[in-house]
Specification:
This protein is an alpha/beta fold and about 325 residues long. It folds into two domains: about 130 residues, NAD(P)-binding Rossmann-like Domain (Rossmann fold, 3-Layer(aba) Sandwich), CATH 3.40.50; about 180 residues, Dihydrodipicolinate Reductase, domain 2. It is about 30% helix and about 25% strand. The chain contains ten helices and 14 strands. The strands form two sheets. It has an eight-stranded mixed β-sheet, covered by helices on one side. Strands 3-2-1-4-5-6 form a six-stranded parallel β-sheet, sandwiched between helices. Helix 4 packs parallel to helix 5 and helix 8 packs across helix 10.
Length: about 325
């Protein structure tokens, strides 16, 4: 169990981690390092809580000097700043001997990820990336199903992720979000990397990648806002479509296996198995994103042994994204 927890960044993601830590570990000593301090106290639905301050609500000490924050000797550092800043903060936390929980994807490119891998493994840092969708009950069920079936009998997989960035944070202009700025590590590939992680985690790294990145000029942003990707495996292909400027939101996975279909519809909370003329549905009602983060943090607390799982996942994820951006296989 951790004694002192340092939060680096308390925007929307950071406050969610803080809210969950306080729920699971109410007696933990929490402190934060903040630079801009532009995000006010938020409710769980990301609306603004104007009744009190973030510091008073959580009873948290806030520092604007990173050295002063580390003088408290935190044993866990939770990093939720823009992606472009992950690298420097991961290195500092690892060299300080702290465990690390960092928002996805952990870094902005493959080179940084390889450097971080070397440092984290040298220091034997307990490390986790917040790929909380690994803990979604549908993904857990899918992993179980894939273990029970011969994976070579998959015929096709498609993944569709559509969201609308302007509606993510109603308290701020979406153009100021890190996701919408290249210099902060934005773009749909880095921002919507959950499904990329899940596919690699479940199926391994593909033999070949084809990608086409798109940018809506009318939005006036300097990042790719959609991506069409084809992953080539030995016996099947995976199509991934990512788009975070689409008002018709959806999060859907379709796995074709011989004559079977497995459909994961995350927006409607429906996990459907279609066997010929018979359908078996598994529906989870009222599952919140906070519950996934809670499950993830509890997993992090239970697994005390040093592991390279998430270090390697970071490297694979960033190698994949770099290949998509370079158009190496286009």
């Amino acid at each position: 169990m951790f004694r002192k927890i340092l939060f680096i960044g308390l925007g929307g993601a950071g406050q969610r981690h803080l809210r969950i830590v306080k729920k699971i570990m109410p007696n933990a000593s929490c402190l934060a390092y903040r630079q801009l301090k532009k995000t006010p106290l938020l409710n769980s639905d990301f609306s603004i809580n104007s009744n009190t301050s973030l510091k008073d609500y959580y009873g948290i000490d806030v520092y604007d000097d990173i050295d002063a924050a580390y003088a408290n000797n935190p044993d866990l550092v939770i990093i939720s700043v823009p992606t472009s800043m992950h690298y420097e903060h991961i290195i500092r936390a690892s060299n300080e001997g702290a465990s690390i929980l960092v928002e996805k994807p952990g870094s902005v490119n493959y080179k940084e990820a390889k450097d971080l891998s070397t440092i984290l493994k040298k220091n034997k840092t307990k490390f986790m990336i917040s790929f909380q969708r690994r803990f979604h009950p549908y993904i857990v069920e899918l992993k179980k199903q894939l273990k029970q079936k011969n994976i070579r009998n998959i015929t096709h997989i498609s993944v569709d992720v559509c969201s609308y960035v302007p509606s993510w944070h109603p308290y701020e202009d979406y153009r100021s979000l890190y996701a919408c700025q290249a210099n902060l590590g934005g773009g749909v590939l880095l921002t919507e990397s959950h499904e990329i992680d899940i596919i690699i985690w479940l199926l391994g790294y593909p033999k070949k990648i084809e990608s086409k990145l798109n940018k809506r000029e009318k939005m006036g942003l300097d990042i790719e806002d959609s991506a069409n990707i084809i992953l080539h495996y030995e016996k099947y292909k995976v199509n991934i479509n990512l788009d975070f400027m689409n008002k018709k939101t959806k999060r859907l996975m379709l796995i074709k296996h011989d004559a079977d279909d497995i459909i994961l519809d995350f927006d409607s909370n429906n996990y459907k198995f279609k066997y010929y003329d018979e359908s078996k549905n598994k529906i989870i009602n009222n599952l919140t994103n906070d519950e996934l983060f809670e499950t993830q943090f509890n997993y992090f607390l239970r697994h005390n042994k040093y592991s390279t799982e998430y270090i390697d996942a970071m490297v694979n994820n960033l190698m994949f994204i770099n290949e998509c951006k370079s158009g190496q296989f286009s």
